[in-house]
Amino acid sequence: MTSDKIRPQHLERKAILYVRQSSAHQVLHNRESSTLQYAMRDRLTTLGWSEIEVIDDDLGRSAAGRVQRAGFERMVAQVCLGKVGAVAAREVSRFARNSRDWQQLIEMCRVVDTVLVDQETVYAPRHGNDRLLLGLKGSLNEYELDLLRQRSLAARYEKARRGELVVGAPVGFVKAGDRYEKDPDRRVQEAISLVFNKVLELGSARQALLWFLEHNLDLPVKGKDGETAWRRPNYATIHRMIENPIYGGTYAYGKTAVVAGYDRTGVKVKIRRKARSDWLALMPNAHEGYVSWEKAEAIRKMISSNVPTSRHHGAPKHGEALLAGLLRCRRCGRKLTLRYSGAKHHIPRYSCTRGWMDNGEPRCIAFGGLRVDDAIEGALLTVVGPGAIAAAVAAEKEAGQQRDQVREALRRDLEAARYAADRAFRQYDAADPANRLVTGELEARWNTALARVAEVEAKIAAHDAATVPSTVDPASFAMLAADLKSIWTDPTTDARLKKRIVRTVIHEVIADIDTDAAEIVLLIHWVGGVHTEIRLPRRRRGQRTSTSADVIAAVRQLVLIANDDLIAGILNRNGLVTGYGNRWTRERVTSLRSHHDIAVYKPAADGIEPWLNLNNAARLLQVAPKTLRVAAEAGRIEALHPLPDGPWIFSRAVLSTAPACAITERARQNPRHPAGSHPNQQSLFSSMT
Questions:
Q1: Confidence (pLDDT) at 676
Q2: Residues 460 and 414: beta-carbon distance below 8 Å
Q3: Residue 601 has what DSSP assignment?
Q4: Is pLDDT larger for residue 388 or for residue 259?
Q5: CA spacing 20 to 30 A to 220: which of 334, 456, 592, 620?
Q6: Are strands 84-88 and 52-59 parallel, antiparallel or unpaired?
């Protein structure tokens, strides 16, 4: 059956059958749709075409306009050349589901007089009614796709808000319906738990990474096929675990957003991370995690750009620094370096400069070593005492009973390697010996598995050889603790002996600087497993151990009426101390004046003092001291008051001015309050102010 819209000029040209499906899943599973589309070739034959070309290059490609379709472009190019009399598809929506491609195809078919054929009818774009119908169908096809997408996303988001949308499981988890469950492989579980424990213990992801690399331990990763593989870890491996809330037992969805970008090649889709407040779902305690949600958050906030270094302390040397090789920077994880300063090069100073020396990175922290060494000595002498020996020995025994983390990880690797070797042997043993093509390959796999077993066993042997067992005798340790203080303070004691004692009880010291509190923070990791934090005051940048500027200004004013002995008493009464925190004495006041070029107090030779205290000034004005003090506090007369609990200082020149005369006149006019005391009245106490 032919249509009146098909003319001889159409049949003289070839027809193109366009076959398309939107995804690879449809291509593999929707076989009936593909069969129906290819069956359109029979319809074209019935309509009168003998030359039919099938274009199926776009199988598995969407027609929404987001991907390039080589088959569609080739079809449009042939239409433009006038070589095509008809383009056919099972439904016209197969051609395009976006207005740009659809209108382009319709316009080209109208220009070259090409008809469109589907399973229902024939469309002639040169006819106004058919062009209108095709335009409506194109708009409906585009709207239908958007509607389906909106419905699908709405259902997806609603399921995510309930915490039931499980798309993919990261390493350490498997999908169990609509929730996550831990991987049943105990080796994977313990490896991931070890990652979080090490990051929390060492204080940085970088330091934990180097710990894994130092002991040559592998970590599990998920492959593209969903299988778990063991590989050498990198920073991204550990950082992804720490940043992913799923390891804290929390369901999270909507952490990223797709943003369209533009470059010279066209539109480029980029993935952007969203702020946590913009996530679609965040549900703590949704499933069993490797750490608690609170602990996972604490670890995540603690992470920074830290780089650890070797675990070895180095051999004790002759230097006076007690903690050489024991201090580790909390910020970057590297060991602190040591240098000596001072005139005799005997004052230690610890600094984290390895990153600057090796890679040109900014320096981390630096501080003097005398105060730090003294604090560690005090903590050591306090801990290592006769009363603490029993607890230390018990802690050592308990720590010895605990399984070594590195050896346990290697033991799990050995168990997995032996299983793989045994499995390879069973496969080799079950094969037909005559089939050398198969047995040769299986034998090679078996040899590789055996080599892996030997490699892990060598690692365990090397680790056991490097681990020195503790041979401390509790009795001799107790005797050492009883005499430790006298031995330590003996000037003839070798510095290397002190360092060996420190290394016996201290594993390492994590150091940091609290800039806000101006303190050095030391976290001592004792060998028994106990941690102790010590905070030491530290001078701020630019701060000097000198007297406060306010004290110096007060002394400049006090020398107008008081000598050094009296000034020292006034400063102590106000709770002021020297730059080193000492009380004031006459000698210290004298030294302060000499250093700052402050003149000493000298009584006037003629007895007429240019500066007077409160009592002498009141006597000069013939008013009560209280009256003059109240006037000075109110600002009616100029006076100096350098310290809250100190004397008032008046200039003799100011006492002869009009404000002073007004105060005297006002006091004399008040009959209930005499201006001053009787000149013949004697005082029981000598005035100091």
A1: 47
A2: yes
A3: P
A4: 259
A5: 334
A6: unpaired
